[in-house]
Amino acid sequence: MEEANGWRLVQIVIPPNEKKGVMAAYAYQIIFEKEKKE
């Protein structure tokens, strides 16, 4: 996986779907972070 490249999973967000109701997932927002090396 991407942890070998320094990425870490922070959060998975399911935005509300106004057309199909809150419980119907149509997309996922996956948030990763990576330590910045200077």
Radius of gyration: 14 Å
Number of strands: 2
Task: Provide the structure class.
Answer: mainly beta
**Strand content of the residues, in percent?**
25-35%
Q: Write the element-wise H/E pattern from the N-terminal end onward.
A: EE
Individual helix count: 0
Arrangement of strands in the largest sheet:
1-2
How far is the N terminus from the C terminus?
24 Å
Q: Approximately how much helix is present in the residues?
A: under 10%
Average predicted local confidence, pLDDT: 79
Shape: elongated
Q: Major β-sheet, in short?
A: 2 strands, antiparallel
Characterize the structure shown.
By secondary structure, the protein is an all-beta fold. Helices cover 0% and strands 34% of the residues. The radius of gyration is 14 Å and the shape is elongated. The two termini are 24 Å apart. The model has no long low-confidence stretch (mean pLDDT 79).
Compose a concise summary of this entry:
By secondary structure, this protein is mostly beta strands.
Task: Note the topology.
Blueprint: E1 7-13, E2 29-34
Antiparallel strand pairs: 1-2
Name the features.
single chain; 38 residues; mainly beta; two-stranded antiparallel sheet; 0% helix; 34% strand; elongated
